[in-house]
Structures are given as structure tokens and as C-alpha cells.
Amino acid sequence: MTQLHLGHVFHVAGSPALTGAASALVSIPDGALAVDGSGRIVFCGERAALPPEFDGAEVRDHRPGFLLPGFVDTHIHFPQTFAGDSYGGGQLLEWLEHCIFPSESRFADPEFAARAAVEFCDRRIAAGTTAAMVFGSAFPHAQDALFAETRRRGLRIVSGRGIQTVGPDSAAALITSEEDALRLTRDEIDRWHAADTGDVATALLHVAIVPRFSLSVTTHTLKDLGELYDSVRDRGVYVHSHLNENNRPGTGEVASVKQMYGVHTYLDTYDGKFGPGSSVGGKSLLGRRTILAHCVHCEDSELERMAETGTSIAHCPVSQLFLGSGTMPWKRTVASGVNISAGTDFGGGDEWLIARVVADAFKVHMGEDGDAAVAMHPAEMLFLGTLAGARALDMEDRFGNFDAGKEADFVVVEPARVPALAGAINHGVRSSDRERATEQTLFALLMGLREPAITEVYVQGRRLHEERSSR
Ligand code: GUN
Ligand code: ZN
Fold this sequence. Notes:
471 residues, Urease, subunit C, domain 1, TIM Barrel, 2 domains, eight-stranded parallel β-sheet, seven-stranded mixed β-sheet, 16 helices, 15 strands, 35% helix, globular, binds guanine, binds zinc ion, guanine deaminase activity, EC 3.5.4.3, Amidohydro-rel
């Protein structure tokens, strides 16, 4: 039966680039979203303009609430579910060694991992994150728990076990041989890729090949993974990793990668050019289904290569603040034409909510030096957290906005559940210019949104529920 959801609709329509998001912003204060029995959007527009065919539809009246596309988190760590706000680390490499590797090692216990999978899905539903690229656990039983729980709860996911073949002592439990790394990754693809429907075009579950970062693997691993990827690319398998996150001089991540591989740029290690002097050693891991997190310290040639290959950047400013990683240069990165989406990077970031990520994006880019400072448009913020994420996952044709024919992934926001948000929405100054007033309302919504205001979450028109079972 067709459902009719009523509320103030905001979405970025069509398929614009980030720079076109402002003119593609749709705001319908007295809006209606109709979802047919198969979970597809059949109407999005003014309530007053609803065609008579919807007269008998089941009405869900969310007014004075808002309807937004479901949030897309393109970089989040499942085995860090309980590791947000880890204290005693420092910047990236020390934090990994002292906080994160020990934390992730706890997933060796199947019961612990299963409990984390429940909590992870709960946190995602509470935050309205309907689709996500999830950096997985090293342990196959933990990944099984994650995929099974995600399927049970009705969320979308792309995930793969985090691959590590070298590392410090604290990562010992997470490290496998080169052979096992390849075998376990291949097994995961065979077990879980499109396991729910048997067809990537309709599946909610997808698998990625996930080398943790270049410092956790070797040229041997990268060569093997390049060949594996080449053999499964046409099955719609993904690639996920980290790039150019920490550039502390001499001892940071970027310097260590260049020193370990002898490459000109960090990106070369993922692009098959991992031999000394960036000589070709194997096949590239880049492409339309590849997402690289952070990219704070990229050279122009790296941005160009990502744009050329269709590789996306998961922008994670909350994490970059927490780990002191610096600020991704917004104007320069956008100008390269690379697709940029949003990532919480939980537990490098300490927020599950994508709205918090785009809010911090606004703040850090406002604070860039001199002419690089920029005030992001609220439509760009919404785009970053929704449609750009769907694009990064190469599923823009399926979700990310309310265009007719797409699968109905959306959240209901009731400002009244968060008094500070309600105050900003109801009593904030609004311009007499209609367009500016719309921007002000969307900005207030994205800046002030907190989990309790997300009262309903839908994937393919089906309502999902937080179970709070692991509290
Ligand atoms: N680089 C390698 N591993 C990680 C991780 O777990 N989190 C972050 N933020 N960066 C990484
Ligand atoms: Zn990360």
C-alpha cells in the first residue's frame, strides 16, 4: 500500500556537482512524500499538488517535522564501536598503537563482537545513517555478525575486513599472513557480497576490499589485492582505505609511507605504483567504487588522479579535530573535481551523526587561512551528507535524494525533541528574502540536529527500529 509522509521536505534534487547543490536545493514547507508498496518514491512535492491517485494512501503526518534523505556515512569503523573518545593516544600512529589496536583486538571474542554489531546498528539507526561504508573488523566471525545484524535490521552496508599483514606488537591479533589476508578477503566477498538478494543492483549488503592503510600492508599484499580486485571489479565489489591523514614531519603517516615504499606520492601505493620511485608493481585499486578517507594533505596530482578514476574522498573533519590531523583544503579539493562525501570516522571521530560532521566541516573551512576561508552553503552541507555519499557508493541511481523512482531512504526530524534545535527553528531570525530564509532554516536544522530529534528512519520505505539492547 502507498504511504504518504507529510512534512517540510528538504533535498538536493537531480545529480548536481557540489558546486551546483545550492541551485538544486528543494524546500517544500508543506510537502508530501509518497512511497509505493515496493519502497520507491512515487511523488515528492507540494501536498496541495498531490494527484488524486494518492487519495486512499495511508497518511503519516509528521508536521511540523522535516523529511530529509537518509544520511550516508562513507567512513566509519565497526571495531571501534566502543572506542570513541579513547584517551591516552595522541596523534594518528600513536593513537592506533596504544588505543585502537588493543580495542579492535577485543573483537577476537565472538560474543563481544556480536554485542558490538547490535550496538553499531543501534547507533546507526539513532543517527539516521541509512547507508554506510564500514571499515570492518579483522575477524571473520565479527564481520559475519556485522553483516547478519545489518541484514536483520534492514540497513544498507558496504564493508570488508580490515587487512593488516604488518604492524606493531599491539596489532599482533589483527595481523595475518599474506596468504590468509587474500583468502579471508575472497571468502568474505563470496559469503556476503549481495548475499541478501543475489543481485548487486538490488542488494543492501555489499563487500569491500579494505587494506587498513599502506603502513599495515606490504607490496606483496598490495599486489595480491590488486589482482583480486581486478577479478571482482565487474561484480561491483568496493575498495576502502585511508589516505594522507597525518603529515607530522618525519614520523607521521605520510612521511612513513613515502619512506617505507620509496614512492613519490602516497596515492601511488593504491594505484599499482607501489615500487621504488613509484614504479608499477601491480594493478590499481582506484575507481568509481573506491573511497579513500581523509585526504587532508594531498598533492594536486593525487587529487587529479582520484578525480580521473572516479575515486571519492570521505571527508572526516570531526576526526581530524580529534586526532590533530589538520584541515583538508576545501576550495582546492573541490576545484579538482573529485567527489567529496562525509564520514564520521567513528572512533577517530567522536560523533555518530553525519549532521555533526557537516557542521564541523562548516566550522573548519570557515577557519581556513586567508582566501582559502569559505562559508559552505547549507545545500552543500546537505549534499555532502546525502547525495554525495550515495555517489561515493556508486548507488546514486538508487538513493540519496527524493527524485521519483528512487528507493525511499529518509529520516523524520522533530525539532521539538531537542529544545535548542526547536528554539533555533522557531525563533531564529529569518530574512524577508524567501531564498535566504530557506537557507537559514536548513542551516539551523543541520547545525542543531542531535539524535533525539531523529524520530523515524526508513530504508526502502520500511521503518527501522533502535533496540537499545546493549545498554
Ligand atoms: N589509519 C589507519 N587506521 C586508521 C584508523 O583506524 N582510523 C583513522 N582515523 N585512520 C587510520
Ligand atoms: Zn578511519
